[in-house]
């Protein structure tokens, strides 16, 4: 997977505006945003591969294995203490 131009531009803006450690590696930091967008792109690609057709492609319509919408999901990371 390659980083999209949008992802690269967002990272550049975030790093340019970063003033503290938290701005880079914190909860809403530049690296977390990059990881989030990378995972989202990977999951979309995986779904396209699994279903065998691109999003909004008429070839998948009414095949029983087509896209039927989406819901927002959160990924939680469990860390050891």
UniProtKB/TrEMBL annotation:
An individual GO BP term: DNA transposition
A GO MF term: transposase activity
Domain of life: Bacteria
Keyword presence, DNA-binding: yes
Keywords assigned: DNA recombination, DNA-binding, Transposition
Biased composition (Polar residues): 59-68
Signal peptide: none
Function, as annotated: Required for the transposition of the insertion element.
InterPro entries: Transposase_mutator
Official protein name in the record: Transposase
Keyword DNA-binding belongs to the record: yes
Organism encoding this protein: Stygiobacter electus
Membership in a protein family: Belongs to the transposase mutator family.
